[in-house]
Write a structure and sequence with these properties.
CATH superfamily of one domain in chain A: Multidrug efflux transporter AcrB transmembrane domain
Structural class of chain A: alpha+beta
Strand content of chain B: 35-45%
Oligomer: heterodimer
Mean pLDDT of chain B: 78
Mean pLDDT of chain A: 82
Number of helices of chain B: 6
Largest sheet of chain B: 11 strands, antiparallel
Number of strands of chain B: 11
Radius of gyration of chain B: 21 Å
CATH architecture of one domain in chain A: Up-down Bundle
Number of strands of chain A: 13
Shape of chain B: globular
Shape of chain A: elongated
Chain lengths: 782, 208
């Protein structure tokens, strides 16, 4: 009675936990999509910098748009309307379509501070010679037909510094040409726009909302202009990231549905009872719910990738109910079956948990989530298999498996010699492959599921607009914003040289928008006192045809410039320049990072050389794909090291548990060999290992341990042996089918996991079967 | 055109006299001539000028320009060549070292002076756009465009004509009070620009 009460209590407890988990999932679990969770945290400074750049850097936030489907005139109108909506929305820090960008207040500011801001000014600009040159230049300008319009400013600004600043601060248009007042491509078939979002480039959900909003604006533009054929084309980093995600999602959904259907069919074929089919799904289902709830409790949400990979890793849990149901003898209550297989099942669960636990010590928050998810999910799946399933199976016709008769009744019983040959063969193949193929994949870009064609299109649009290359950036670290501005200024001559040598087309920087206080004060110090200035002006104008006194406003303005307080980023607040500065000056906890996006960079190593001693001391040239690859490699090496510890822990655990070195060997050898076979397959396919292959190998280890433990289990009858084999055949077939489907998906990430797991599981099954301790020594034969 | 009409009228008159219809035709002829002088017919005369300008096609010609600027003690005098390539390319190259080059090509304006090169977009500079239409539209014979930007006074005497253009666009009115184009037949011979601040320029085209 007590036992029954305890069981009831247990069931109630389980129900409460699962309900709480469901509640947590429904009410308190945002699904995160920010990719930075899969970037390492608390690594060295460089990586932190890189990460902040990837998340917030201007290049990562830039949308490139092309409007098509009309004459140049129509497109120009659409471009104006669209930009107006985008600017009004306040969602972008920059909306550029070629129209004039600066408002009157900013123009006034630039005009007032022109003698502090203009980088054309030199120490000798106010010498007699300098002023003479200036006025000669003005005479030339007065010859132009446009002087009608420009000369009104001449008495105040004979050098045209205001105009120069305005043009300099207008974004570089690159190879784009202006037509009808907006940016157009060479053929005049597309109006081009560049929009920099305020939200981070890695926040894909926010970017998706933006994309949808932009589509709505286009719809509105279509209606307002009556041009139905207007089309929009998105490019830029956010667009590519969204495309990537969408493709993975589509493939996962499609394959998931297909795999689910196949699994159902399998299970129905095997068990011929809807109830039992349901039972096979229950542990996995509860495992997923519990795992997700635990992660969301610890991390205030769950990452989309954790969920997807976590469910994959939990795939091993579908084997547990299969073991239970196939081992059930006719007429036997499931509770008793459970009792028989429990030790083996638990050995499998615990060693798999050990294998997965290496992810808990990862520096990637996303992988810690994944580890926690899979471990807690496995725990729940095992508990449900052990505790709940026996209650379900009570009154169904147990142990009848229509296909069982066709199963041969033993393990492979390969002789010791054949076993040895197998071991040597696989090891040899492995070593040979290692010598032939590079082990690690170098190019993380190969992981992108976006077709080359779309990437090329993106590249073309980027080149056409002279937009910053998202794969290269210069970072400058300083104590504060002024420090960064000063450092950027000191780099300018070298960068100019790089542009002249063709290493770059250009560099954006905060210092280009706003010089440091020091530089502004320096320019102020060049301006002579009023008396002196008047004298020099008189001398400079002596042989020129200007009327006396014409330049009095020029003298006034210069005199006023001497007493101006230099501009700082803060004093620009409320102007469009401030938004642009914000993207180029990133405050971190104890420093400020200046971001200098490189436009059209060619040879980064040479650029680093050119920067010489500056590089490294607070200035870094980042080759983002290479740095990301390096980060992934660091992480991967870390995983491999930790995997060593996990293997050791598993060996110790099994040795202590099994207390039989031959059985230990029979378990560990097939699993290790299966992992090697899987690696060989991946390398022979010319893929090179990456992070996702390693996640796949973890699953192979978990499943392989399970297979090997069951095959090497001490059994009492040939029937039991046959049931074990049958159960494992079902497990293996279903796993291999599902993962082979992933392997054929064409999405590199899914392919990586699919191939690794499908090959590894098949190998684990065959090897466990062949290498299991010969069953010719069962303790007793009834 | 008037000469041709005259000839036709005279031939008709001679024939009619023989036929005894002289008094009737004389009356009709006088009426016809009167109607030519009435203001109603001025538009047709302007259109006629425009047609002639349009059919003149591309030209290349030397020019001399005098600019009288308030800032300067003496007028700026400059020489150079003008080239017009229909429908909307207009080039002005100054003589001498560092000769400035000024090109209007459709909506783009290119200005080159020594090493500095500037590209402007007319769409963004409405005043300049209106200004450019004064000679652009005239050379092209585009009356519609001309009327869009200017109030036009047209005077056609003996063998020369005068177009006085008064800006309609307030953005151009801030700079320019009037532009006067003078010509003969299908050729523009002279262009005067009078500015709000009293500056004025006079450009003469020297056809060979």
């Amino acid at each position: 009675m007590d036992q029954v009460t305890a069981r009831r209590l247990g069931l109630v407890l389980l129900a409460v936990i699962l309900l709480a988990a469901l509640a947590q999932l429904f009410f308190r679990t945002p699904v995160q999509t920010d990719m930075s969770a899969f970037m390492p945290h608390d690594r060295d400074r460089l990586q932190t910098l890189l990460q902040s750049q990837l998340e917030q850097g201007p290049a990562a936030r830039v949308w490139l748009l092309a409007l098509r489907g009309g004459s140049a005139e129509v497109l120009a109108g659409a471009s104006r309307l669209f930009s107006h909506k985008a600017r009004k929305s306040g969602r972008f820090s920059q909306v550029l379509n070629g129209q004039q960008q600066l408002d009157d207040a900013t123009r006034k500011l630039l005009s007032t501070y022109r003698y502090l801001l203009s980088d054309r000014l030199q120490p000798d600009s106010y010498s007699v010679e300098g002023l003479h040159r200036l006025f000669l230049g003005l005479l030339e300008i007065l010859r132009s037909p446009l002087s009608t319009f420009s000369k009104t400013l001449a008495p105040r600004d004979p050098g045209g510094e205001s105009l120069y600043l305005l043009q300099k601060l207008m974004p570089k248009t690159g190879a784009v040409r202006l037509e009808q007042g907006v940016w157009m491509d060479r053929e005049g078939t597309a109006a081009l726009l560049l929009l920099q979002s305020r939200v981070s480039g890695t926040d894909l959900d926010a970017q998706l909302t933006l994309q949808q909003e932009m589509s709505r604006w286009l719809e509105a533009v279509r209606e307002e202009t009556g041009i139905k054929g207007l089309k929009i084309q998105f490019a830029g980093v956010p667009a590519l990231s969204l495309e990537t995600r969408q493709r993975i999602r589509d493939a996962s959904t499609r394959l998931g549905a297909l795999a689910g259907g196949i699994m159902l069919l399998y299970m129905f074929l095997v068990f011929r009872s809807p109830r039992r089919v349901l039972m096979t799904a229950l542990p996995l289902l509860t495992g997923v719910i519990f795992g997700a709830a635990v992660v969301s409790l610890c991390f205030d949400g769950i990452h989309g990738i954790t969920l997807a990979f976590g469910i994959t890793l939990l795939g091993v849990a579908i084997d547990y109910p299969i073991h239970l149901l196939t081992h059930q003898h006719p007429g036997e209550p499931l509770g008793r079956t459970m009792k028989r297989i429990r030790p083996t099942l638990f050995q499998g669960v615990v060693s798999t948990v050990l294998g997965f636990s290496i992810m808990l010590w990862s520096d990637f928050p996303g992988l810690v989530q994944l580890g926690l998810f899979s471990i807690s999910g496995l725990f729940m799946a095992a508990w449900v298999t052990d505790f709940v399933l026996p209650r379900f199976g009570r009154d169904s016709a147990p142990g009848e498996l229509p296909l069982l008769q066709h199963v041969p009744g033993s393990t492979g019983q390969a002789g010791v010699r054949i076993q040895l040959v197998l071991v040597v063969l696989i090891l040899g193949l492995f070593i040979w492959t290692l010598q032939d193929e590079p082990v690690w994949s170098r190019d993380i870009r190969s992981l992108s599921p976006v077709p080359q064609e779309i990437k090329e299109q993106d590249g073309r649009l980027r080149a056409a607009m002279g937009a910053a290359d998202p794969s290269a950036v210069l970072l400058v670290e300083g104590r504060d914003a002024q420090d960064v501005l000063r450092r950027e200024e000191s780099l300018q001559p070298k960068l100019q040289k790089a542009v002249e040598q063709g290493l770059l087309r250009g560099v954006e920087s905060a210092a280009r928008l706003l010089p440091s206080i020091q530089r502004q004060q320096e320019r102020q110090s060049w301006i002579p006192a009023r008396q002196e200035l008047v004298l020099r002006l008189e001398t400079a104008l002596a042989d020129l045809p200007f009327k006396p006194g014409v330049f009095a406003p020029f003298i006034d303005d210069l005199d006023h410039s001497r007493s101006l307080v230099p501009l700082t980023p803060v004093s620009l607040q409320g102007t469009p320049l401030y938004l642009r500065l914000q993207a180029l000056l990133l405050p971190t906890s104890e420093a400020v990072i200046g971001v200098m996006p490189l436009v059209g960079s060619r040879d980064l190593p040479r650029l680093s050389n050119l920067l010489g001693s500056a590089a490294g001391e607070g200035v870094w040239v980042f080759d983002i794909p290479r740095e990301t690859a390096r980060m992934m490699a660091d992480f991967r090496d870390d995983m491999v090291r930790k995997a060593g510890w996990a293997v050791l822990a598993i060996v110790v655990l099994l040795a202590a548990w099994l207390r039989d070195w031959r059985r230990c060997l029979a378990v560990l050898l097939p699993v290790s060999l299966a992992v090697l076979v899987s690696v060989v397959a991946v390398l022979r396919l010319g893929q090179g290992m990456n992070l996702f292959h390693i996640v796949g190998l973890l699953l192979v280890t978990g499943i392989g341990l399970d297979y090997a433990l069951f095959f090497s289990r001490k059994v009492v009858s040939a029937d039991e042996q046959r049931r074990t084999l049958y159960g494992l055949v079902i497990c293996c077939l279903s796993t291999v089918t599902v993962f082979a489907l992933l392997g054929l998906s064409g999405i590199p990430v899914l392919q990586a996991i699919g191939i690794t797991v499908a090959v590894g599981c098949l190998a684990a099954f065959l090897l466990s079967w062949l290498l299991a301790r010969p069953a010719s020594q069962p303790l007793a034969c009834p | 055109m008037n000469d041709r009409l005259m000839n036709t009228a005279v031939t008709a008159w001679m024939g009619a006299r023989k036929a005894g219809l002289a008094p009737v035709l004389l009356g009709a002829g006088i009426l016809f001539y009167l109607s030519l002088l009435s203001p109603l017919q001025a538009g047709e005369g302007l259109q006629g000028l425009m047609d002639r300008l349009a059919s003149a096609g591309g030209t290349e010609v030397s020019f001399v320009e005098e600019k009288h600027l308030d800032m300067l003690d003496v007028p700026l005098i400059q020489k150079g060549r003008l080239r017009f390539i229909p429908p909307d390319r207009f080039e002005r190259v100054l003589e001498g070292p560092g000769g400035g080059r000024f090109v209007i090509d459709g909506q783009r304006v290119l200005q080159q002076q020594g090493d500095t090169r500037r590209e402007l977009d007319l769409e963004q500079l409405p005043a300049v756009q209106a200004f450019a239409a004064s000679f652009g539209a005239t050379l092209r014979g585009d009356l519609e465009m001309l009327q869009k930007y200017y109030e036009i006074n047209f005077d056609d005497t003996a063998d020369t004509w005068v177009l006085e253009l008064l800006p309609k666009d307030p953005r151009l009115q801030r700079f320019v009070t009037r532009i006067v184009l003078r010509g003969q037949g299908g050729l523009v011979k002279r262009m005067e620009v009078y500015e709000v601040n009293g500056d004025w320029s006079d450009m003469r085209l020297l056809y060979e």
